[in-house]
Amino acid sequence: MADSERFSYEGLFSKNSVAVGGRGSAPRPKYDFAVAYPDPETLPLDGLASSLKEALDREGKDLAYYPDPAGLPSLRRLVAEKLTRDRNMKVDQDDVVLTSGSGEAIGMLIQALTDPGDVVLTEEFFYLGTMRQMRRFGTDVVGVKCDYEGIIPQELEATLERQAGLGKKVKYLYTIPTFQNPLGWTMTLERRKQVLDITRRHGIPVIYDAAHAFGVTVNSQPIGTFGDVTMFSFHATKPFHTIEGGCLVFADSGLKAKFEALKRAGCSIARSPADLGLSLKASLKR
Predict the structure, then answer these.
(1) What is the pLDDT of residue 129?
(2) Tell me: the pLDDT tens digits for 231-264?
(3) Residue 283 pLDDT
(4) Which residue, 208, 204, 196, is CA-closest to 153?
(5) Cys-Cys with 191: which of 17, 71, 132, 150 at CB 3.0–4.6 Å?
(6) Best CATH choice for the domain 81-284 from the list 3.40.640.10, 3.40.710.10, 2.60.120.10, 3.30.70.120
(7) How are beta strands 96-99 and 246-250 bridged, if at all?
């Protein structure tokens, strides 16, 4: 198209649109701990190919239909069975919604729960990707001081009281209590109980980002049983193309219904061979 015929979009982009720019095609270092790339030699390519073929042979004809907004029922059932067996969580497949990974899960939770100007509490330092998504939706992010055991309960209580004094209602607490990014600590069990006691007294839900903890135990204790909504990735590394996979586990059916409605409205993951291939990573966690 000639330059004279090009249409200018200057001034038309929404305030919520993502700014142009980013990493580009910069050379990849051999070891990059900043973004947790896996070792390419460890990718289970043969297992992926055979699993994908098996899934297509079994369920490939279902690609002709729109998917269940909560995700592939057989994979949701597998996730629920694993969480029940390994973590003693009272979960069935109706409590689980599949996502393309924790990034989609976080973004849609923020969209479902947050209006511009809403106050959300987080650790004083937390995952940059989540912070960007919160800012995109106009969230008033308030950090709570931490020590090596996690969020300091007295600081959490004081922060809630300050916000109440300003006439502001805190919407929820977003926390990464296991392998906190970037602080690195894991919140102790006693500290988790204290945080939950405070949030319950103030009527604030807890969103637990357990992205890297789907199959993890700490001090022989399974991870993922803390909070009102828990998000997982099915693999503790960066996306393996579109097959990384993740899920949300809801304690509240009303919030799950809102989340499914968002997916129906256009945020749903397209049903594809890659969607069926998600069962590979879940099956590897058995």
Answers:
(1) 85
(2) 887 765 554 444 447 788 888 778 888 878 777 7
(3) 37
(4) 196
(5) 150
(6) 3.40.640.10
(7) antiparallel
Q: φ and ψ at 150, to 5 degrees? A: 120, -155
pLDDT at residue 266 greater than cutoff 70: no
What b/e readout covers 59-90, taking b as 16+ CB neighbours within 10 angstroms? eeeeeeeebbbbbbeebbebbbebbeeebebe
| Segments in 137-208 forming alpha helices (H) | 153-165, 189-202
pLDDT digits (tens, 9 = 90+) for 53-77: 998 898 888 888 887 888 888 889 9
In the 3-class helix/strand/coil scheme, how is 91-108 assigned residue by residue? CCHHHEEEECCHHHHHHH
- Is the pLDDT at 1 greater than 80? The verdict is no
Find the helix or strand (DSSP H, E) in which 50 lies: helix 45-59
DSSP state of 204: -
Q: Is 284 exposed, middle or buried (0-12, 13-18, 19+ CB in 10 A)?
A: middle
Mean pLDDT, range 68-87, rounded to an integer: 85
- Return the structure tokens found at 177: 């209590």
Of 115, 70, 66, which Cα lies nearest the Cα of 256?
A: 70
pLDDT at 174 over 90: yes
